[in-house]
Design brief:
This protein has 233 residues and is of the alpha+beta class. Helices cover 56% and strands 18% of the residues. The structure holds zinc ion.
Length: 233
């Protein structure tokens, strides 16, 4: 055996990995050669001093990363075995890639769909034709606020110029007070005032409502000659 081939085999010789024949040849050469003998001794010393160094634990992160690499390599090796495992491996990789891509946008997308559904449900009632609401009778008012209005009244018996009053209507639809907006001089006439007040005290109003609940409200009402009553809610 030449020196060159012995030097190439020293590491394997130290690790006890040489076949029996080679091992004996190397051992014989090392025992006699003046170049290779000291080289072998040097290698042995280096190896034992390396072994004597304190062992440092590998960082947990590195361990995990190595395990991932190893498991991937194992899968890749398994995939190379036959066509079926190759197809399965490719499909699994694609599914994993797709999953990783979709996960960050899954929550925002879900929130967006929910918001769209809620908005759609809230807007649907305003898309329906207006005449439908008119045809429904006895419907519970769902508006935020409705104003008071006059239901029925007896026309007062007087002949003057126009008189405009603002009435306070309580929750039961009765007038509780009023202020004169126009025709104050006529209201000073006792017979005119009595006639109007009598008519208003007997009149029935639809009270104002908030969320369907009756409440106090105001009605503007104007009296004109010839028994004509004009109401502005
Ligand atoms: Zn030699």
């Amino acid at each position: 055996m030449t020196c060159e081939s012995v030097v190439q085999r020293i590491a394997e010789f130290l690790d006890d990995r040489l076949p029996m024949g080679d091992r004996r040849a190397v051992a014989d050469h090392l025992g006699t050669c003046r170049t290779c003998g000291p080289h072998y001794a040097e290698m042995q010393r280096l190896r034992s001093s390396l072994r004597a160094l304190p062992k440092r634990p590998a960082p947990a992160q590195l361990k995990a990363a190595l395990r991932v690499v190893a498991s991937r390599e194992l899968k890749r090796a398994a995939a190379r075995r036959d066509v079926r495992s190759f197809v399965r491996y490719t499909l699994e990789s694609l599914a994993l890639t797709f999953d990783n891509l979709m996960r960050p946008i899954a929550l925002p997308a879900f929130g967006g769909i929910c918001a769209a559904i809620i908005l759609f449900c809230a807007l649907v009632p305003s898309f329906t034709p207006g005449r439908l609401h008119i045809q429904i009778t006895g419907d519970v008012p769902t508006q935020l606020y409705t104003t008071a209005s006059l239901m029925e009244a007896e026309a007062p018996d007087f002949t003057t110029d126009e008189i405009v009053l603002e009435l306070d209507i309580n929750g039961s639809g009765r007038m509780v007070d009023y202020t004169v907006e126009k025709g104050a001089n006529w209201m000073r006439d006792a017979s005119v005032r009595r006639s109007i007040e009598y008519s208003l005290l007997l009149a029935r109003f639809t009270p104002a409502t908030t969320f369907g609940q009756p409440m106090n409200g105001k009605v503007r009402i104007s009296f004109r000659p010839r028994y004509y009553i004009d109401v502005k809610g």
